[in-house]
Amino acid sequence: MASSFRSFLRELRHPSKQVQSFFYEIGKPFGFNRVSNSEAINQGFLSNSEFFSIVDKIAKDCSAVPIQVLRNDEEIEEGELFEAINFPNSEQSRQQLWYEIFVYLLSTGDSFIWREKESLGFVSTSMKTLPCQNVEVVKSKEDSILATVEKYKFEYGQERVDILPEEMIHLRYFDPSSRGRALNDGLSPMQAGAAVLLASNNLQIAEASIFENRGTSAIISAGKAEIPMMPKDQKNLDKGLNNRMGGAHRTNSVITTSGDIKVHQLGMSSSDMKLLESKMEHLRQICRLFGTPSILYGDPKASTYNNMKEAMKAHYSGAVLPNVELLLSTLNRTLVREINERSTATFSLKINKKEIEALNPSQEEMHEQIRQDVEKRILTPNEAREMIYNLEEIEGGDQLNPLKTSNSNIDGN
Question: What is the largest CA-CA distance in the chain?
């Protein structure tokens, strides 16, 4: 007994290769296997309906966020920077380009924006995305965290292009691993959710298989007949029933016959039901990875939010604005800085949050807040009348009310 215990302790201090291999294999689905950019796109965005729905919505909302182009802190609607942001290339609008940027970023953790320079000495304002799975970051020293980026290598088919660092905007999520730092890789949200994505993809295959093989809802036997059906009769009956009952549009349908037959009803197994129910849990887990409420994607049990407006506000705060801020900060330190260096004015890019409906109170909510401000002696009745109704002032309405003001005072009735 004592010798066995000592062996156990030795194994803990110096685990055998077999034990190490066991824990390594157990850990693989939960992060030891790197999710490549190609895998994140092919197995996620292109293959998984939940992943596509979430990434597609966030990318569309990010690309539609209103942006202010500022010159000396005043908004402008013309000029070099305004044109570069709103008309990034001859084939795309800002919304189209930004949608691509955020689909790549959300799917893989990387997004590459190529600024092809027409000639030396000029700031390139033309921007287009490159598929991140075809771009390699080449550093001055291989496998080094401290080395600087020497160039970006783009390869697709017969195309081979070396791109200078100043011609590329590399947008990426922080990867804390040594490998990620050495390769300048972004961290895909699906790296942490690889097991969820795998389970979700397998569930979709299983779900399709369940319904494909679930076409038959009953077994028909000879009933009370003294002589059982012969093979030839069974074959003819199967053929006839398939003609009358086959096809997805006839799922769980019932037919009648005057023959003396017996029907054995078939039902979906409890394991099949649980399998289908787990689909919603996968949706919730993927939503948590991206910081967006699952209620926006059809989750009936997401009762955390009182209404859709609250869910949209959480969606913008957790998933949309942080990504747009990341892009704007990157553009401000690259494209905008280059324009500022050869201009006497100071340009910048900023989110216009006042124009985002989801972040602002509705008209009813605004009216109620103003009424409360009058009651709390923050606003005068005349100020409230102007803000809510844009009405003329009333006599005595310029004074804060000493007592709680009724709605009729504000209306002037």
Answer: 102
